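F.,

This is the one I mentioned.
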């Protein structure tokens, strides 16, 4: 499951003195699973104090962003730069290891000199990787903006020399170069398979528009995050996600916790759009179920008069409450822009079996892969409940739906006709 992290660089800057002690007051207010620590150049002399303080906090520092000056020196490669970069990188690794970080994010090309000498950058990657491995931390290279080539081409060069290299993919950096969805191409599949971390930030500007290289919150720019995350989820990505969007005033340094929490919630929704519902969602569930099944009723000629017990007509607030509190069904919704657009429920029994019911998607949100995501999510949740078999009931005459379920391994087991339905009930099962 993707952990949603908050970058400390989004909270701390020159305006508030880069004061890491502010994090202690913030961690309970921020709705994140942990942090990505942004290292600053004025922390080297107080690394022990930084480590001691951060180790006293409750939330983990899962990822460590190497101080950006290291990348500047690697790219500049003037006299003394290489050894100084190695020295500082080692200090970054020492602090990262001391606070329990799992991954490092490195700007392998950076600053004015950027990617002018990629062979040297790749040589430095090898040295830095050896140091990171000594400290038992995974080194990742970020697709940082560049001025000679483009980030994906540079990442390919790294991968050519080191097939097991790992990467961090930043949405703003990618959109800046007009490359956001290039990572989804078949050509770049080997590259995407080595992406283990995501930075989620928005961008508003043209290709390589240096005047607009700001770190915006999701929704404040032009990136189609729904499209991007449709790809991310469809690829089976399991890595972590960091929100880096600037959340403090550039003059007063005041941290906007609500703004950051909104972006964290957005990332969580995009990465995990299916979530268990609570009583406050019941009326929304009723609307989604009735609206979704009404198209089936229209297609097959079911009406309130000839099929009053059909889902489109029989579902109301009391029925869903009975499912939740009487039958103790587990109920889940697919949320898009904080609106429920899909639904399903699970009813497990003591035979390690469960019934999947009312899986549906609002008509205007169909043909986007949402039904598949709901079904695959149901498989995972059912297995977590200890179930080894799943059962469903369908309108037998709905051949398209039956074929869809068969495509996911369901086997047709039989039918039954009831006097109160103008259709035949079909039953299917799947071994989990």
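My design for it:
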């Amino acid at each position: 499951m993707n952990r949603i992290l908050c970058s400390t660089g989004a909270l701390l800057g020159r305006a508030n003195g880069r004061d890491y002690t502010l994090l202690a007051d913030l961690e309970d207010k921020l709705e994140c699973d942990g942090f990505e620590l942004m290292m600053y150049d004025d922390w080297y002399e107080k690394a022990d104090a930084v480590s001691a303080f951060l180790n006293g906090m409750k939330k983990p520092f899962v990822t460590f962003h190497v101080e950006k000056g290291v990348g500047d020196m690697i790219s500049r490669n003037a006299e003394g730069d290489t050894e100084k970069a190695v020295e500082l990188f080692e200090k970054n690794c020492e602090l990262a290891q001391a606070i329990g970080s799992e991954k490092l994010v490195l700007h392998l090309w950076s600053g004015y000199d950027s990617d002018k000498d990629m062979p040297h950058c790749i040589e430095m990657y090898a040295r830095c990787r050896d140091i990171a491995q000594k400290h038992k931390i995974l080194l990742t290279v970020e697709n940082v903006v560049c001025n000679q080539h483009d980030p994906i081409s540079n990442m390919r060069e790294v991968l050519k020399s080191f097939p097991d290299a790992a990467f961090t993919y930043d949405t703003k950096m990618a959109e800046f170069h007009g490359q956001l969805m290039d990572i989804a191409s078949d050509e770049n599949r080997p590259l995407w398979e080595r992406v283990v971390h995501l930075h989620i930030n928005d961008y508003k500007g043209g290709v390589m528009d240096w005047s607009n290289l700001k770190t915006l919150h999701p929704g404040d720019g032009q990136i189609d995050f729904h499209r991007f995350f449709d790809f991310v989820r469809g690829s089976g990505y399991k890595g972590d996600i960091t929100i880096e969007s600037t959340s403090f005033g550039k003059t007063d340094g005041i941290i906007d916790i609500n703004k950051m929490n909104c972006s964290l919630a957005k990332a969580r929704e995009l990465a995990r759009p299916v979530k268990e519902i609570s009583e406050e969602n019941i009326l929304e569930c009723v609307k989604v179920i009735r609206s979704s099944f009404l198209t089936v009723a229209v297609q097959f000629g079911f009406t309130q008069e000839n099929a009053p017990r059909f889902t489109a007509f029989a579902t109301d607030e009391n029925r869903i409450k009975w499912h939740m509190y009487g039958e103790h069904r587990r109920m889940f919704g697919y949320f898009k822009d904080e609106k429920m657009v899909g639904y399903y429920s699970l009813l497990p029994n003591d035979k390690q079996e469960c019934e999947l019911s009312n899986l549906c998607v609002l008509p205007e949100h169909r043909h986007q892969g949402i039904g598949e995501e709901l079904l695959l999510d149901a498989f995972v949740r059912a297995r977590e409940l200890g179930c080894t078999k799943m059962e469903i009931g369908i309108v037998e005459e709905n051949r398209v739906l039956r074929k869809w379920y068969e495509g996911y391994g369901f086997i047709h087991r039989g039918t039954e006709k009831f006097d109160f339905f103008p259709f035949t009930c079909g039953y299917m099962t799947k071994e989990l």
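The chain has two domains: 4-272, 276-431.

Talk soon.
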